[in-house]
Amino acid sequence: MQDSIFEISIFGGGNGYGESILVKIDKEWIIIDSFINPSSSLPTPIEYLKEIGVDLSKDVKKIICTHWHDDHFRGIADIFEQCHSADFFCSDCIDTQEFTNLYGITDLDPVTSPTKEISKIIDILKSRNKVFHSLRADQLLHQQNVKSNAIKIWALSPSQKSINASRMQLSKVLTQYSDDKVLPPSPSPNEASVALLFEINNFCFILGSDLPYFNDSDKGWKHVIENSQICQNKKAVFFKVPHHGSSTSYHPTIWAKLLEDNPIVGLTSYSKGWGVPNQKDINNILQHTDNAYITSSRSDKKRIKKRDKTVTNMLSELRIDITEIPFEFGQIKLSTNNLSNPIFSLELIKSAIHLNKYF
Amino acid sequence: MNKKLIKEHLLSIVLVGDFNPKIFQPEWFYKIGLIREDEASNPIDLISHAEIMSFNLGWIKVEINRQKFTVYTEQSAYFDLARDFTIGTFKILKHTPIKMLGINNHIHVGIYDKQSWNSFADKVAPDSLLKKGLPKGELEQLTIKEERSNPKGYTRLTVQPSLTHFPGAYFDINNHFEIDQNSKELGCKEIISILENNWKETEDKTLNILSNIWDNK
Amino acid sequence: MIMETSTEYLAKVEEDTKKPSKPLDAGVLDMPQEFLKKHWDSNDYHKTNHKLYSANDDTDLIDAQERKSSNSSEKLYLAPEVLKTSANKSIFFDALQKWEGIVVSVNSTSFVSRLKDLTNKGTDEEVILPYDKIDAEDISLIKPGAIFYLAVGYKIKNKTKHKASLIRFRRIVDWSEDEVIDAYLKGAEKLRAVSPNQSSKNAG
Q1: ipTM of predicted assembly, 2 dp
Q2: Tens digits of per-residue pLDDT, B86-100?
Q3: In chain B, how many domains are there?
Q4: Distance (Å, rounded) from C-alpha B95 to C-alpha B85?
Q5: pLDDT tens for residues B152-199?
Q6: Options 2.60.40, 3.30.70, 2.40.50, 3.40.50; which CATH number does C92-169 get?
Q7: Greater model confidence, C197 or A230
Q8: Does A68 map to a domain?
Q9: Is C77 exposed, middle or buried (0-12, 13-18, 19+ CB in 10 A)?
Q10: What is the DSSP string of A131-163?
Q11: Which residue in C31, C118, C137 is closest to B37 by CB distance?
Q12: Residue of C nearest to B72 (CA)
């Protein structure tokens, strides 16, 4: 039952499946990023919203794609297709000639192309005679009054310098693709990702996307701290930790300058491969707050997917050792019925746990 | 649906347009990087002629005449590769005029006992319909066609008893696509885009058709 | 041996369909065994191994060519035996499970891949494959981001079957400079049509 006036949920699938954030303001919804539930093949935001009785065609007003890593926007085009009343937002880096270059190439190679989603979004925009809204640092996306409560949503990134840097990286992809004939590993678009600040009366939430910290005042978190007009004299009570808590996105000044003492923080995990957050990353977070939560627990154990016994035996005999990448869906949900004097209620759903239980 | 009941599944990708069969030598496919060298050197049953080119690579069979380019395989492990082979060919030959595409599935499904056979037949062609006009009549073949507007074309399903797998049913699922006759697009880029973008949907549709009939019998 | 071409085959189908109706007017919804008895040589019928058609069918295969009509000079085209293989039958791979894989990382002896289950959907999987499992001609294709298809099942040759895996890399043609430019222009044009104006950056 939808009785909260404000709600923010972080969804994570763990292990590279992706993350997504849903924000509810009064009766309207904002979807930030998307990933696919491998069991149903549906975008997780859609599944959740349908489960709670939201009318996708009317109640979803904004869809924001923070950046083009495929664990952030698988299924986002399907979401946009169903949400007829929504506007589409993405990082300003898409509006560069070099990105259209990448788009053009990967349009010819659709099997794993992350920009196939973009292609579909563009087609939908065209059919609706709409444009997408590009976001950059210090840009206002939204403002409204809800029962005398002032609400604003700001983009904190990407900075101009980051946009320029992404532009150069994308142009390199063109050369690499022609030479190697395979889709190259994505150049990191983290630098150009969109971090968001929600301002509701006197309190703020910061959603950090995958924005990194650089020792450069013109990009990443240092730019936000030192140059952002929006963040002056504002501190957030809730923080979605960027990039699975990894060290590339951590710096103590983020916590000192942008966040309240002992804020509530949420993050998603990525256990496979390089595995984040590691113990050091967790320690970095826990030194600043007791209220840290993560969407999925760590999965070290090797699991074999359940399938026909003949196949399992065959794999064993052929010495092909296939292990499952578990989908560990978790939701960190923060909500309140009162925006004037909010008392937040926190729920940890399914795989979500306190961060100190991760290891 | 128990996939073990599928006794034979042949996939064919058929392009209708204007082709020059002679250029489609196995060696040419190797040179453009679409097949391996040993496959190009040792094709099976090669027919090389100005009017027809035909060969078997072991994993797919290829046949080209002036009007049709056909790739087919009975081995499901190679279905996606057959698609890739076709797409790869016409990425190079992008100026080839191609107006129609067929992604066709020819499937023989086993039915393992009398009760299943009868319930399947009743489901496909209920007795009540037959008995009205032709009380002793029995169904030979059932064809259903669903039109499609975007992209233009249709899906046609034909069901009949299998004559090669007894007891069994034979499903012929023809997914036909064509580009607008008024299209000014030269070459085959549009039809190849249709192949790329509709492959997954076609696959899902085929399984859906079988499952809907099978699981609801 | 010259293979019958599909053109010739189609011509025969057309010819046959014009002829008076054949065995099928016996009633195709008869009990299959009854149908068989009418159209097969009685010896052939009794040789048929009906156990083949059990739900747990994993017995030896029978080549479809062995089935004949009762009149060997006529062929039944309605359920096409379209793709008769040649007498020297090439290896047939009967896949039980298929995956699409993407190479995540490579080292000197093996590569790590993330697999998408094409048979059952569901969660992804991970596999480390040594190079000795890869066909020599595909080794050069192994790079991060490369796509391959993995299947396990039975390899069948000359009616004997044994368990096998199949790994084959996706082959992509080289892009010419012209194609890259075409793609760029197409992408740019499509994006421009839905891009915001420079003056309207702030969305309300």
Answers
A1: 0.86
A2: 999 998 898 999 999
A3: 1
A4: 17
A5: 999 999 988 888 887 788 999 999 999 987 777 778 888 988 998 899
A6: 2.40.50
A7: A230
A8: yes
A9: middle
A10: --EEE-TTEEEEEEEETTEEEEEEE----HHHH
A11: C137
A12: C83
